[in-house]
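INFO batch 0412 | record 1 of 1 | parsing
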Amino acid sequence: MSRIKEFSLPDLGEGLTEGEILRWLVAVGDTVALNQPIVEVETAKAAVEIPAKWAGQVSAILHGEGETVEVGTPIIAIDTQPGAAAESTPAAPPPATSSGAAGRTPVLVGYGPKTGAAQRRPRKEPPAPAPAPAPAPAPATSDRPLATPPVRRLAKDLGVDLYALAGSGPDGSITRDDVQQARPGAVGPAASAALGQSVSAAQGRPATAPRVGPDRERRIPVKGVRKLTAENMVASAFTAPHVTEFLTIDITRTMRALDRLREQPEWRGVRVSPLLLAAKAVLLAITRHPAVNATWAGNEIIVKEYVNLGIAAATDRGLIVPNVADAGRLSLRELAGEMSALVQTARQGRTAPAAMAGGTFTITNVGVFGVDTGTPILPPGEAAILAFGAIREAPWVHRGKVKVRQVTTLALSFDHRIIDGELGSRFLRDVGAFLCDPGAALLAWG
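INFO prediction complete | emitting tokens
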């Protein structure tokens, strides 16, 4: 059996077929342990660290950072017996014997060190050349520029050599500003500002600054999260007949309820936001209208008795939708903790693909961007999605008088094959009723 083993990009689940190598965590010559993280890969859903399948010494790195490789493609070669003597002569050594005769005496507990052969333990010397050709070795891990994956991607897009930069960030790390100032043609703060808008464009946000290149155009590869989002949205828009309804409500009581929650000792240190009560409103409304939590399966409609509540999160990698599994079973305090952890993990780019699978209902909080509302597109396989708009002070008729109240607009998009207008309207009305007066809704709905 060959001691050089090639590790292939594994199937990370949910039908993913490829991934982009963001950064190598090891270099040629490094000794790795079983299950030690060796590479960070960005799939269409998340950036994940992949562990080593075997212990040994890295003999070759087969694909560089920034390359996109298909699942099943070898990406690294590991020498699983780096201390073993190379077999350089055609004659085989005499077989080992239990009596310790001349030859390759086995080393077992109690035998002591073996004579006449190299000991089988990791060492720092480079291994014998691998039988298969391999790319040139990557630089040693300790010599790699210290930069986050988004900064590395920015440098790649702009043609900036990270090895030529001196980082101004913590511990000498390279920042976005360092890359911006080093880009070809950069001329100080003005260039940095223009580049900042260019970076926004790369992340899916509009930019007005001139693009990189003589033709004032910059081509951004469609891959990763952006590619998957595009495919899913097109598939959803042209397979599920969307209907969107809107409801503007007074949520002054909800905002006061949040203030009271924050004053409770058991809620100290917990992130309490209007989105939390919007999520609770959705969960309670689903118990009253379970057909909203369903999937169209061609010749049947599958109504779920559990709610995997998706929370759309905007990240540097694009929009992703991790979900809180079986959210209906959680208390309000537990739901708050799960939502906070979910969003924090998403923004760090550490959401596992499994956390984005199996969602049954989604909430997208467009209000955080100052948007009143929108017409959200359904995530594939889900029957409804709620957009939660910005909360604004507005004149409102309250108890027969016009007063300044805190107002927001909800938008519910739903699959008209599953949810007819009456069901969608009743569901949206109940979500709105809870947010208008959470205390009264809890008492009335039990």
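INFO post-check: Residues 149-207 form one domain.
INFO record closed
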